[in-house]
């Protein structure tokens, strides 16, 4: 187990900064996910931690010790690649044993540890096969076994599930979480899949345009995002610009394009403050209510199996609203809506 | 009713059979350029050389089947030594060229300032004819060459690198000429190795030499083996460079062939020597196909 820390890490390609002044910390035994859209710098950050890229500025520390000057082969990290990056000319056993061979682990111990790792990922008996004879899911497991067998201080995952079908991805993400909890190894996981991030992580780092925009627990970043990009990227959010009209304590009134809303907010707001209110579709209720009750017309109703996803026009604003079960409202129907009184309040310039 | 069906079938089959016959002729017509070329320019000359080597189809002589010319090749030291000398030139040039080409191909995968310029410069020997290359090397390493005069100036003696028993001058020219050729092939294969695979090896604790030895080289085997095969066969049958730089004895087999053919008009013996060269190259080719399974399938 180890602590990983990045202090002001920057990586520039020509005139473009892929990663800019990134500060982050993964605590001992923590599962930290770096989440963001393609091109946000998350993989670059991971490769800098692994030593596969040299930062142009800043420091990488492992257990408080600077390691950014060390070559990749001398850092105690192990990475699982998006493409798995298995050695195609080696059998599964040879792939898994590669890291141990490089560390000059005696043959007998090597054999035992390879067997143990393959058993852990439920691939016992497939050690003699070549990667090309394995399915995508099995290859992914070999890549995980190859990484954990070296008992690294830090495990790094670069979108390891993105090449798999949805069902398998769902199963393997749970297995990965269980494996990490069993090994209690500090893990940094990169993904653009918000569901993966929410399921796997102790904490999530949201990156956008090479910068860290927010760090928090899955509940924090989903329920109480502090940045607009976080609210937009994690699931669906109705983002409504608002101006604080008054209020006291933790209760305020805000003027919006859909009318005046009551807003509960722990942060101190002043009259005239411009904020963005973020409402999750599943938090908006269709039906009458005492506060924040609005009227709108159903524009679309999409049945998604477990839920129905509505687009409802309120004044000129389109709101996404989700209800469990089959569609109960028809397109064109006028309905009452109740918005929660405690939305996420985003204060950004 | 039961007889009506077979009676109708031939009527329906007739146009189908005619179409099939027509297709067969079309297929043959399409194959003709390729097969015809191979037949005319490869099979016929090879067959003629072989027939001459066994005493048949010799111009101006009555044909009589015999293995005498092959016996003569094996019995007389000058021919046997010529064969082994050619073999030595082929193996030594291939091994040396391969060693150098491998290291430089791997270096060319690394990004460094001036890489583009070097990638253009190293290909220059490819466009220099081998005879010109021989003259260049000769002027450099011959007993009266630039280097010999330079070291003589300091009171040292220059080793015998041309007209020597082991053909080092020939090997040097072949290496100079073939390293870029090998590099073109091997670099292309190395460039096809996914960067993630190299990075995975580094991440698992492999220092650069181990990455090269355990990942880069095995994954480049398709290119390495193909380049080695082509260079070996080319040097093994080389005439021009050995005839310019070799010693009086032994002579490379193609040089002996030329002497037998042009100076002594011994076409039958020359054909037997040519057949030996061809068979030896064929054996190497078969070994290549047997020893390099898949030839690159692993990279995919």
UniProtKB/TrEMBL annotation, chain B:
<feature type="transmembrane region" description="Helical">
    <location>
        <begin position="265"/>
        <end position="291"/>
    </location>
</feature>
<feature type="transmembrane region" description="Helical">
    <location>
        <begin position="83"/>
        <end position="108"/>
    </location>
</feature>
<dbReference type="Pfam" id="PF00528">
    <property type="entry name" value="BPD_transp_1"/>
</dbReference>
<dbReference type="GO" id="GO:0005886">
    <property type="term" value="C:plasma membrane"/>
</dbReference>
<keyword id="KW-0472">Membrane</keyword>
<dbReference type="GO" id="GO:0055085">
    <property type="term" value="P:transmembrane transport"/>
</dbReference>
<dbReference type="InterPro" id="IPR035906">
    <property type="entry name" value="MetI-like_sf"/>
</dbReference>
<protein>
    <submittedName>
        <fullName>ABC transporter permease subunit</fullName>
    </submittedName>
</protein>
<dbReference type="InterPro" id="IPR000515">
    <property type="entry name" value="MetI-like"/>
</dbReference>
<feature type="domain" description="ABC transmembrane type-1">
    <location>
        <begin position="83"/>
        <end position="288"/>
    </location>
</feature>
<feature type="transmembrane region" description="Helical">
    <location>
        <begin position="166"/>
        <end position="193"/>
    </location>
</feature>
<feature type="transmembrane region" description="Helical">
    <location>
        <begin position="223"/>
        <end position="245"/>
    </location>
</feature>
<keyword id="KW-0812">Transmembrane</keyword>
<keyword id="KW-1133">Transmembrane helix</keyword>
<feature type="transmembrane region" description="Helical">
    <location>
        <begin position="120"/>
        <end position="146"/>
    </location>
</feature>
<feature type="transmembrane region" description="Helical">
    <location>
        <begin position="25"/>
        <end position="47"/>
    </location>
</feature>
<keyword id="KW-1003">Cell membrane</keyword>
<comment type="similarity">
    <text>Belongs to the binding-protein-dependent transport system permease family. CysTW subfamily.</text>
</comment>
<keyword id="KW-0813">Transport</keyword>
């Amino acid at each position: 187990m180890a602590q990983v820390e990045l202090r002001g890490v920057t990586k520039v390609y020509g005139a473009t900064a892929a990663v800019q002044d990134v500060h982050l910390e993964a605590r001992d035994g923590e599962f930290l996910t770096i989440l963001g859209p393609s091109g946000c710098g998350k993989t670059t950050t991971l490769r800098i931690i692994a030593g596969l890229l040299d930062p142009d500025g800043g420091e990488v520390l492992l257990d408080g010790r600077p390691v950014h000057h060390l070559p990749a082969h001398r850092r105690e990290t192990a990475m699982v690649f998006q493409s798995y990056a298995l050695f195609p000319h080696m059998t599964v056993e040879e792939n898994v044993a590669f890291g141990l061979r490089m560390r000059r682990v005696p043959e007998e111990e090597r054999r035992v540890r390879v067997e143990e790792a393959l058993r852990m990922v439920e691939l016992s008996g497939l050690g003699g096969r070549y990667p090309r004879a394995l399915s995508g899911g099995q290859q992914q497991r070999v890549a995980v076994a190859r990484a954990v067998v070296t008992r690294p201080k830090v495990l790094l995952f670069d979108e390891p599930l993105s090449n798999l079908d949805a069902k398998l991805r769902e199963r393997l993400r749970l297995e990965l979480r269980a494996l990490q909890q069993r090994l209690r190894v500090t893990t940094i996981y990169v993904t653009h899949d918000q569901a993966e991030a929410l399921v796997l992580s102790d904490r999530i780092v949201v990156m956008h345009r090479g910068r860290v925009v927010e760090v928090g627990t899955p509940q924090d970043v989903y329920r109480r995002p502090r940045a607009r990009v976080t609210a937009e990227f994690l699931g669906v959010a109705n983002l409504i610009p608002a101006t604080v009209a008054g209020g006291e304590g933790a209760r305020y009134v805000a003027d919006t394009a859909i009318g005046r809303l009551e807003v509960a907010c722990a942060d101190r707001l002043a009259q005239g403050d411009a904020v963005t209110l973020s409402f999750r579709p599943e938090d908006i209720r269709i039906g009458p209510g005492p506060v924040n009750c609005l009227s709108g017309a159903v524009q679309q109703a999409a049945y998604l199996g477990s839920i129905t996803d509505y687009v409802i026009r309120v004044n000129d604003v389109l709101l996404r609203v989700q209800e469990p079960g089959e569609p109960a409202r028809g397109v064109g129907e006028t309905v009452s809506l109740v918005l929660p009184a405690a939305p996420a309040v985003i204060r950004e310039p | 009713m039961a007889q009506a069906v077979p009676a109708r079938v031939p009527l329906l089959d007739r146009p189908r059979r005619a179409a099939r016959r027509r297709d067969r002729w079309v297929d043959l017509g399409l194959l003709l350029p390729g097969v015809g070329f191979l037949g005319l320019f490869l099979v016929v000359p090879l067959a003629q050389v072989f027939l001459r080597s066994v005493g048949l189809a010799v111009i101006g002589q009555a044909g009589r089947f015999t293995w005498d010319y092959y016996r003569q090749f094996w019995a007389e030291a000058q021919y046997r030594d010529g064969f082994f000398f050619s073999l030595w030139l082929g193996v030594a040039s291939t091994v040396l060229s391969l060693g150098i080409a491998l290291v430089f191909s791997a270096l060319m995968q690394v990004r460094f300032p001036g890489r583009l310029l070097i990638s253009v410069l190293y290909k220059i020997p490819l466009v220099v004819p081998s005879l010109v290359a021989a003259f260049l090397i000769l002027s450099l390493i011959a007993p009266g060459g630039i280097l010999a005069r330079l070291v003589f100036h300091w009171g040292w003696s220059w080793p015998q690198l041309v007209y020597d028993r082991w053909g080092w001058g020939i090997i040097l020219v072949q290496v100079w000429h073939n390293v870029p050729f090998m590099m073109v092939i091997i670099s292309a294969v190395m460039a096809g190795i996914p960067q993630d695979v190299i990075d995975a090896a580094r991440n698992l604790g492999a220092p650069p030499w181990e990455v090269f030895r355990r990942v880069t080289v095995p994954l480049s085997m398709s290119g390495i083996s193909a380049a080695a095969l082509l260079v070996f066969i080319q040097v093994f049958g080389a005439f021009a460079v050995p005839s310019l730089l070799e010693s009086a004895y032994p002579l490379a087999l193609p040089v002996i062939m030329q002497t037998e053919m042009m100076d002594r008009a011994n076409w039958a013996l020359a054909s037997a020597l040519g057949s030996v060269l061809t068979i030896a190259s064929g054996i190497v080719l078969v070994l290549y196909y047997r020893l390099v399974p898949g030839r690159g399938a692993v990279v995919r």
